[in-house]
Amino acid sequence: MATDGKCHLGKCQVDLQYAANNKAHRTIEISEKRLIIRRGQSFNISVIFKDGFNPETERIEVAVTNGPKDTKTVIPFTEELNERRWSAVISSVTKNELCMTISSSPRAIIGRYTLSLQHDYKDISYFLGNFVLLFNPWCAGDEVYLSSDVQRKEYVLNETGTIYYGGSDYICERDWNFGQFEEDILDICLNLLDNAPKYLRNSNRANRRRCSPVYIARTVSAMVNSAYDKGILQGRWSSPYTDGVYPGKWNGSIAILRQWQKSNFQPVRYGQCWVFAAVTCTVLRCLGIPTRAVTNFDSAHDTDGNLTIDNYFNVEGDGIGSSSDSVWNFHVWNECWMVRNDLVPGYDGWQVVDATPQEESDDTFCCGPASVKAIKDGELDYMYDAPFVFAEVNAHCVNWLMFADGTKMKMDVDVSNVGHCVSTKKCGKDVREDITHLYKYPDGSTEEAEIFKKAKIVIVAPAPPKTLKVSLKVNQPIYIGQTVSVSLVISNKSSEEKVCTVNFWAKKRKYDGCVGKETFKTFKKEITIPSQEDKSIPLELSYQDYGTFPDMYYGMRLIAYVTDKSPENNVAVMKDIGLLNPALTIKMLNFNAYVGEKVHVEISFTNPFALPLKKCFRTIEGNGLVDDQLTEKFEDVKPNALAKVKCDFTPKKSGQRKLLVDIDCDLVQNVKGSLMIEVQKKK
Questions:
Q1: What is the total count of domains within the chain?
Q2: Hey, how many other C-beta atoms are within 10 angstroms of the C-beta on 530?
Q3: Is the bond into 369 cis (omega within 30 degrees of 0)?
Q4: Does residue 371 share a domain with residue 239?
Q5: What are 354-387's pLDDT values in tens digits?
Q6: Catalytic annotation, residues
C-alpha cells in the first residue's frame, strides 16, 4: 500500500454507487453522477485496492473533511452503526476489495465533503471522492424530521407548487416551478451560503453553524433579497422595469438562480413578495428543509411596531400623512418545518421565514424563523421577529378622512381587517388550504381577547355611531375588459328625512397598498333619503373608464363620502376590488407523453376586449419538460375571439410534470395557466 501522506488517486478503484445511494436518499432526481446524501442515513461504497489489501494487518479508518479549513472528522470502523454520530462498518472484505457502510450524524454540518480512507497509525490517505450532505426529513434524529410521508413528498420532493394572490374576497392562484432538483441548482444553493456576509467575515464559524436549520433558514431569508449583500433578487414595486424582468413575468425559480450564478452573484432584477417566497422555497427544499409558500390576505405592514395601522385620506381618496404603515392585498412568505431547540418546549413545527425586504432584523433585511404557534399564542419575545409577523395577521386598522381645514374624521376602526384566509397549497392536492386557525383565534373570541391582552394591544375606540351609513357592493368575480357594476347604498337610520351629497371616486391600486394619483371615475350627486330607508345608486366602471392594468396584481380602490348638513353624521367607505385575467385552457394533443419524444400542446383563451390583441407572446417552462424557458410570438387575436396557440417540446424526465404557460399581449399581461402531464419511459 501507499507509504506517504498524500491521497492516492491511482492506488484504488472506488465505487460510490451514485445511483443506488442517491435513490435511497431520495436525491436521484438531482443526479446519478455524483453522491448526494442526507444526514443520519447510511450509504454504501466499495474500494478495490490495486496493490492488494490485508484486513488482518491494515488497520484503517474513514475520514470526512468539510469546510474552508478542511476540518476532518475521523470515523473508526465499529461492529455496528451508531445512529447519533458519524460511524462506519465493514460489510464485506477480500484481499482486494473492501465494502463499507457509512452513516453521518443526524446533526452533521450540511454542505460539501471529501471522503478518504486512512491508516490509524500511519500518515497515509486514500482519496475516495466527494459528496454533498443535506438535511434529512426522513430521519427521526434530524431537527427537520417530518413524520408524514405525504407531507415529505409535498414539502420536500414536489418541484412545483401553487401561490395564491388577489384579495380575501377574490382569491386567485398561479403555479410556480420550484425546480429544486435541477443538478446545478444544488451548487447554486451552496454558493448562496458561501456568499452570506457572516460566512465572508468568518467562514469557519459560519460553516460550523450549518448544522442548524434555524441558522440556514435565517441565512437564506437574508440572501434571497439583495439588500446589503450579494443576494439573489432586487426588489422593485413600481415601474419602470425596463432594465430587468417585471416580477409578474417569472414562472419559476430556475431562471432566476441561474442568472444570479452566471452574473457572478449580481442581483437579479426584479422581485416582489411572491418571487422572494418562491425562490426561498426552492433553496430550502433543495437543502432538505420542508418548506411551503403561504399567502396572508389583507396583510399588515406595521413599521413602528404599535400594532395599529393608521391610514389617512383626503376627500378625494388620496393617501396622505406621514405614516408608512400599510395593508397589502396579500403578502407571501414561507413556512419551514423544524425543531426549535433555541426556544422553550412546545414551539417546534412550522416556522415563518420571509425573504421580502420589509424591515431590518439584527441589522439585516430578513425575517424569521418565527414559530407559528408562538404567534398564535401571543408569545412575542421568542426569536425571531415574532412581533412583526404577529402584526401582519393581527394589527388593527384605523381609517381617517382629512379635510382641507385640517380637521379629520374617523371613518372606521376595524379590529378584524387584517390576517384573512391565510392560504397554502393543500398537501398532495392542487387545492387551497386555509390555515388561518394556525395563526390566530377567531375574530371576537375570548381567546383572541386574551392574546391581545398578552401582546399589549390597545383596542382603539370605535368611530361614534351615526344616523347615516354607507356601503359599496360589487359582484365578484370580475374579469379584465368587463364593465364593473357597483351599488352605492346609503342608509338613513334617523327619524327624519335627510338631504345628502354623495361623492364617489375610483382609482387604481397596487397590491402593496399604494394608490395611484389619477382618479379614473368620479360621481357626485345630491340625494334625498326618507327616514328609515335605504337609497341605492347604481354605478358602472367600463373598460373605457379604467383601461389597462400593468399586471394581474393591480386592482381598484373605490371611495365614497356622504355629507350631511350635520357634519357629525358624515360617513365614508372604501372598498378594494380586483380584476381577473382570462382563463387559459391547455390540453395535450398527443395520446401519451414519452421521454425523448415531442409533445404537442394547444393553449386557448378568449379575448375579453372589443379590441384586437397585438404583440402576443407565449412562454412555457416546466421542470423535466422544457430546458429553461421557451418564448414564441403568435398572431394577433381578433376582438372577443377565441385564440388557439400551439406549441411543442420534448420531455427529458419521466413522472408527473407540470407545464407552466404565460401569455402576454398589449392589453393584458401575465395570463397564467398550467397542465399536469404524466411522462412515461418508452418501453
A1: 4
A2: 11
A3: yes
A4: yes
A5: 999 988 888 789 999 999 999 999 999 998 999 9
A6: 273, 331, 354
